[in-house]
Write a sequence for this structure.
């Protein structure tokens, strides 16, 4: 089937197989309505395409640091998937791979699931909306590949390679119509801030930028729904806090890290966590002020040579999980006031690129093309459940939703969506109480051993 941009979309199914703004160009971004115009497609971001400090060659020993190099993955994909037809609702509840989407227009860099809707972002700058493995809608930014997506009700927030955060709104009368609703920071604050020299921060010799705006790639986003806050992390080493209701920057934590921030996660008990290419994980505590917020670092959770590439929080169990470029997953537990290190999960041969938690399950996607699944038991014990294998490129993003159609009180089931640099999205069903130490490959359950992927070390 051909799409409107000339690419080929293939649906598979497993079936029964179980910068600082200067006044000379400031007004060029205003379209006369107070909204920001999208950048020219010829504008080049000062950010590189690959996330800093991870490569495709890592170890699970925790020794040594991966080389600082550009990722070799950002090449035209040589992979193509054969066509088959079926619908997601006909999967008969089997465990394992239940479907695939291939859209030959770019590598999958971000995705988020919201109920029965899936949003995906690629380096084509297009955000696509899917229902039951079928394309439902799409919308496009004119610049900046989509590195992060997050959804709150009818609002969609996207973080881009060009340093911008954009907000989109789903039409109440026609859910397939999605239009841009604004940008962070809002135009008024951007204009006011630009005329005051004190609002600029020097980022390199003879170069200053407006503090309330990211000047490098926005790599990650996280929501605090209770207080209506949006957190953004960037390769410019800053974490920024935004009020969703008016797109206002409440705080910029400058030099939050010594290198690019790869992940930010709103946690429990007022914590916010950041992970960076500098090899550190930091815990921050939020304080509300009269005109904004103040975040103070209260604990350095990790300091290592290998880059921190992904974070995930389990609010239910008050645990933080961290994936690194050495293929390891560290985790911490919340005690009386601080967090204590709980252990290390070994499951990958290469860098962990994404993580998610759901119920008692922990998911990690890796440059080794696999997804590992653990089940959290009592205390600090994690049982290794399975390897989800089928991608032919690094797994860059993951989102998990409960499968209400097949879940039961005794065995909750989850739908995991995984996006890869092989240009595909795969859909898996995972049972929380499935037998452990199994390999799920292309929809099959096998009795292979775990190949060194095991329980808590």
């Amino acid at each position: 089937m051909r799409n409107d941009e000339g690419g080929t979309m293939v649906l598979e199914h497993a079936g029964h197989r179980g910068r600082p703004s200067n006044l000379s160009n400031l007004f060029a971004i205003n379209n006369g309505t107070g909204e920001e115009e999208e950048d020219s497609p010829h504008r080049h971001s000062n950010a590189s395409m690959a996330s800093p400090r991870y490569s495709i060659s890592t170890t699970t020993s925790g020794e040594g640091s991966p080389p600082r190099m550009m990722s070799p993955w950002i090449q035209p994909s040589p992979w193509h998937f054969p066509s088959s037809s079926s619908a997601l609702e006909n999967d008969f509840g089997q465990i394992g791979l239940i479907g695939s989407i291939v859209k030959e227009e770019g590598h999958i860099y971000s995705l988020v699931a919201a109920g029965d809707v899936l949003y995906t972002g690629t380096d084509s700058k297009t955000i696509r909306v899917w229902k039951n493995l079928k394309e439902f809608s799409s919308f496009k930014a004119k610049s900046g590949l989509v590195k992060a997506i997050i959804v709150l009700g009818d609002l969609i927030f996207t973080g881009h390679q060009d340093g911008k955060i954009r907000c989109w709104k789903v039409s109440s009368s026609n859910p397939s119509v999605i239009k841009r609703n604004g940008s962070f920071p809002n135009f008024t604050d951007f204009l006011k801030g630009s005329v005051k020299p004190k609002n600029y921060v020097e980022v390199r010799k003879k170069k200053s930028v407006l503090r309330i705006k990211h000047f490098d790639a926005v790599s990650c986003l996280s929501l605090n729904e209770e207080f209506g806050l949006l957190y953004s992390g960037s390769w410019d080493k800053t974490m920024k806090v935004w009020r969703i209701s008016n797109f206002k920057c409440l705080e910029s934590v400058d030099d939050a890290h010594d290198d690019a921030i790869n992940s930010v996660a709103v946690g429990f008990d007022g914590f916010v966590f950041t992970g960076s290419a500098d090899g550190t994980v930091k815990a921050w505590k939020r304080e509300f002020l009269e005109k904004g917020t103040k975040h103070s670092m209260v604990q350095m959770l990790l300091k290592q040579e290998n880059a921190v590439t992904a974070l995930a929080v389990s609010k239910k169990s008050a645990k933080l999980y961290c994936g690194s470029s050495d293929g390891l997953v560290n985790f911490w537990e919340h005690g009386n006031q601080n967090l204590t290190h709980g252990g290390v999960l070994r499951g990958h041969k290469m860098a962990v690129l994404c993580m998610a938690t759901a119920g008692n399950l922990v998911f990690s996607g890796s440059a080794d093309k696999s997804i590992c699944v653990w089940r959290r038991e009592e205390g600090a014990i994690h049982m290794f459940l399975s390897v989800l294998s089928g991608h032919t490129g690094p797994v860059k993003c993951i989102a998990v939703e409960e499968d209400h159609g097949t879940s039961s009180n005794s065995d909750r089931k989850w739908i995991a969506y995984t996006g890869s640099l092989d240009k595909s999205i795969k859909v898996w069903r995972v049972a929380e109480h499935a037998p452990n130490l199994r390999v799920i490959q292309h929809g099959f359950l096998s009795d292979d051993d775990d190949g060194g992927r095991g329980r808590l070390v």
Summary: Helices lie at 23-26, 187-194. Residues 187-194 form the longest helix (8 residues). The CA atoms of residues 12 and 85 lie 6 Å apart. The domain at 9-18+50-446 is CATH 2.130.10.10 (Methylamine Dehydrogenase; Chain H).
